[in-house]
Amino acid sequence: MSRIEQSWYKPASWLTWLLSPLTLLFYFVSQLRKLSFQLGIKKVVKHNVPIIVVGNISVGGNGKTPFVIWLTEYLKSQGKNVAIVSRGYGSKAPYYPYTLSEEDKAEQVGDEPKLLFDRLGCPIVISPDRNAAVSKLADLNIDVVISDDGLQHYQMGRDVELCIVDAKRQFGNGWLMPSGPLRERQSRLETVDLVIENGGNSAYHYTLENAGIYRVKDNVKVGHIDKAHVVSAIGNPNRFVESLTQLGTQILSMQFFEDHHPFIEKDFDKLGLGNIVMTEKDAVKCRSFAQDNWYYLKVDARANDALVNELNSILLRKGILHGV
């Protein structure tokens, strides 16, 4: 994590104020862009399929991907054919919009879309233009589209907005980027359909539960790992380290990279022959060169009853689900 990112989760400092002119510029540009949609200067594209946006107002590390997996599986359990659209951060697809297939590798389509496809097997389309991604799904029998992130992609019409908030980190120092971690002001939460906390004890929350340790090379579930080096390239690696500690794994060393870091084999040279444990998002980028003693921790989101009931109520009200 860079020095600037570290400052986001501390009281305002000289660095915060030093960056404040850029923060002011970011605020005016983003507000002007948002106003252009509100006044109809820029057009919001409406689609024939309901769209649920799962996003946040802060940068990275909110635990959003496990909730997207949970929501997809929940909608499937209600008899819905679900597809996912994503920006595909870090992807190098031959063209956009691009529909994922089993042969695609993480370096081509991005780590999060690859993880989602491996877990869910549902149609996933990546593109910087989310409207183009949704349109790509037109020929499929899709009942609902989930947009993985995209809360600030105002050109894309949406039926439901779900905002994920990390219970521990919350909104950091409360400043907009780059002085703080916020993409939008906290008042934006008043306009979304539901604010959902990852962890914590708020009315609507979910927890991340350990679903076992798996070998990176072949996805085979293994038993307890006594000790290991920890390698991670996610937005908030501290939560990952805490999970391993709770499982009783002795941590030999920790090596953190920037979020979405494109791993290569050389990144692991200094760790020797000891066990290595990483996140599932990291594992999809390392599978082609992983050693036999490289593992990843799989986690699943578990929503509390109040969240399930409130979400169900919203989906019924918006006509995405239908009562008996």
TrEMBL record:
One GO process term, biological-process aspect: lipopolysaccharide core region biosynthetic process
Q: Which gene encodes it?
A: lpxK
Can you tell me which residues bind ATP?
A: 58-65
Q: Which InterPro entries does this chain map to?
A: LpxK, P-loop_NTPase
Query: Which pathway, per its entry?
Result: Glycolipid biosynthesis; lipid IV(A) biosynthesis; lipid IV(A) from (3R)-3-hydroxytetradecanoyl-[acyl-carrier-protein] and UDP-N-acetyl-alpha-D-glucosamine: step 6/6
Q: Report the catalytic activity.
A: a lipid A disaccharide + ATP = a lipid IVA + ADP + H(+)
Q: What is this protein called?
A: Tetraacyldisaccharide 4'-kinase
TM annotation in the entry = 12-29
Keywords tagged on the record = ATP-binding, Kinase, Lipid A biosynthesis, Lipid biosynthesis, Lipid metabolism, Membrane, Nucleotide-binding, Transferase, Transmembrane, Transmembrane helix
The lineage, from the top, is: Bacteria, Pseudomonadati, Pseudomonadota, Gammaproteobacteria, Alteromonadales
What Gene Ontology terms describe what this protein does at the molecular function level? ATP binding; lipid-A 4'-kinase activity
Instruction: State the family it belongs to.
Output: Belongs to the LpxK family.
Which Pfam families does the protein's record reference? LpxK
Species name for this entry? Pseudoalteromonas xiamenensis
Q: What does this protein do?
A: Transfers the gamma-phosphate of ATP to the 4'-position of a tetraacyldisaccharide 1-phosphate intermediate (termed DS-1-P) to form tetraacyldisaccharide 1,4'-bis-phosphate (lipid IVA).
